[in-house]
Design goal:
Strands 1-7-6-4-5 form a five-stranded mixed sheet, with helices on both faces. A four-stranded mixed sheet has the order 8-13-12-11, sandwiched between helices. It has two domains: 166 residues, 3-Layer(aba) Sandwich (Peroxisomal Thiolase, Chain A, domain 1), CATH 3.40.47; 158 residues, Thiolase/Chalcone synthase (Peroxisomal Thiolase, Chain A, domain 1), CATH 3.40.47.10. The chain is built from eleven helices and 13 strands. It has 330 residues and is of the alpha/beta class. The chain is globular and about 55 Å long. It binds oxa(dethia)-CoA. Oxa(dethia)-CoA binds next to helix 2, helix 6 and helix 8.
Length: 330
Amino acid sequence: MTIAGLGAYLPERVVTNDDLAATGLDTSDEWIRSRTGIVQRHYAAPEQATSDLALEAGKAALADAGLGTDDVAAVIVATTTPDHMVPGTAPLVAAALGTEVGAFDVQAACSGFVYALRVGTALALAEDAPVLVIGAETLSRIVDPRDRGVSILFGDGAGAVVVVPDETGRIGPFSLGADGRDPSMLWTATGGTRAPVSHQVVDDRSHFLTMRGGDVYRNAVSRMAAASRDVLEQAGLTIDDVDLFIGHQANVRILDAVAQRVGIEPARCHVTVGQHGNTSAASVPLALADARDGGRLRPGDTVLLTAFGAGLTWGACLLTWNPTTGGGNA
Ligand code: UT7
């Protein structure tokens, strides 16, 4: 299995920490930078929704792979901010691409891309055909602009890969996990079937994302480190065999702690949270594209991806960056 194409899309509007402070939010550039490493994030334009971002990244990935929509056997969108509760976002993206192949969403919050890559890899193998896997989010629409503990963290964007079944590369092994015993650690409490939208919900502002930051932080570090170790062990590799480490871009302190636990130095880690903020399911493919564009991926490199998010969910996978297929791996 090989990643034959990689694409990214970031909305034009850049929102700095100072911009957020200027809205009257009781925060500062200094606090946000020192606690999270975030300098800026992108926000979608009012007329853009997640499928629009996903479409741009998907088109870029297909072009990068030198493939057309007709070559693709399925479209998978990992998102926790769908355009609608019903239907899924992937069918909208597939329609915009001009295809009627199977299209469905994967909801595993910030771990969504790693989960979707697992599903997409299996599907590409089963169908013996390329699969488009997209991570896309418009988190700016679900954070409470008055909640400084949450709103400063998140941004919008999309990243996509085309997974191709061939013998030249490797995607995997994977390690996926979930613990749903305490979903309130990071959730939107209402707006779903347990507590549908009502005037009360809106008055309470409980339809916005809420988080117990410290608990999430601790779990993010331990789960991403454990999942990373698990895939290395499955592959019979050590951290010394990894050329580039890309963790879920939530907070630079979390990434540093994970890197320290797995024993990898900063020079082999790619960090984009400063520029993108936390883009949930889009963060890993956006960081991968940023690494590629920055010349940090070389043919044959072993890349370790790991992610963690609401659920709780977590995951990791190894892949070989292989330049022999597609236009974008060189
Ligand atoms: O993508 C899914 C995963 N999400 C994450 O991984 C996020 C995980 N959590 C985090 O990254 C961190 O917990 C945060 C960045 C959210 C918070 O950082 P922290 O170092 O854990 O700060 P804290 O929550 O302990 O808050 C410290 C202080 C508090 O004030 P008091 O109680 O000490 O007076 C907060 O009210 O900082 C205050 N605070 C802020 N101050 C200025 C919280 N948010 C802000 C803010 N600006 N934006």
